[in-house]
Write a structure and sequence with these properties.
Length: 295
């Protein structure tokens, strides 16, 4: 509980500053659930109702402070605890509604909202890359080793993807074996480099020890890069192009990256990077090194 003493402000201007402090505290996320109590005297009583309007949870006259401060704080603390207990399951439900329970990644519902927010924040000329990655042959893995093995590989792939994206990227599982990565500001070269590196990393995943023999893992990736004008229409079109690029990658033999840009296809499908191999000049990302997180 935070006490804001309006009586110490002294002047009318000072009392207004004290009230502004209440409003400022309440507007900040870290104080949204904090108790705020305002202290008033006879000179500032006309501002008591305004303090409540601005976000104070309780008001107290200085004349009653000795008798009432402790029990008021106790009651306010108890009420805040009860409110937190009521909020907790709602907040957890909202969180789970945006999370894929198997992998812990965000789900399609979250990704759709995040894409709209990213699109709305793009300035003219800003590039945006949408990457759709599909785990190859998941059905065959499930049929041969069982769904427990398939689920284990999905979790491993999800963890690998999570460690490989930038903080500003959006990563989500959008289907049984499909993952979406939205990369704001990424150029075609940077997106292609990231896609090939992901293919290489997924291919190097160790098979789970619970099954006999190696369980191969690989992904196919479709990427679309453009400078969309924002809004649902252009983002949806870019997403459809990434989806079409994924189908092309699958048709070209899987374990490949297929990229399209605004003016059409950008070269042939690209294989994964060889582990430990240096990239050619054509593969180097056209962004600063910090744009790609490679661990």
């Amino acid at each position: 509980v935070i006490l804001v003493d309006v009586t110490r402000a002294g002047t009318a201007a000072g009392r207004e500053d004290a009230l502004h402090t209440i409003s400022e505290l309440r507007s900040r996320d870290q104080f949204r659930a904090t108790g705020l109590m305002a202290l008033f005297d006879a000179h500032s009583a006309d501002r008591a109702a305004l303090a409540l309007d601005l976000g104070a949870d309780d008001i107290l006259s200085t004349q009653a402070i000795d008798a009432e401060l402790a029990p008021r704080i106790e009651r306010l603390t108890r009420r805040l605890g009860e409110e937190a207990a009521l909020r907790a399951p709602v907040e957890e439900g909202l969180r789970l509604a945006a999370i894929d329970p198997l992998t812990g990644l965000h789900n399609l519902r979250y990704a759709q909202g995040a894409m709209r927010r990213i699109g709305a924040g793009l300035a003219a000329g800003d590039s945006l890359a949408i990457m759709i990655a599909d785990l190859d042959n998941l059905k065959a893995i499930n049929d041969r080793f069982g769904h427990e093995a398939g689920d284990s590989i999905l979790r491993r792939v999800a963890e690998c993807l999570k460690k490989s994206v930038r903080p500003e990227d959006v990563l989500a599982r959008i289907g049984g074996d499909e993952f979406l990565i939205v990369m704001p500001g990424a150029s075609a070269a940077a997106a292609r480099f990231a896609g090939r590196r992901l293919c290489s990393r997924i291919g190097a995943l160790e098979a789970a020890s619970d099954w006999t023999g190696a369980i191969p893992a690989s992904i196919s990736i479709g990427i679309a890069v453009d400078c969309p004008e924002g809004g649902d229409t252009s983002l949806a079109a870019l997403h459809r192009r990434a989806d079409a690029a994924l189908f092309a990658a699958k048709a070209e033999g899987r374990n490949t990256v297929h990229l399209v840009v605004a003016d059409g296809e950008d070269g042939a499908a690209q294989p994964p990077l060889r582990p430990g191999a240096d990239c050619s000049a054509d593969d180097q990302p056209e962004v600063a090194p910090h744009m790609l997180r490679i661990v």
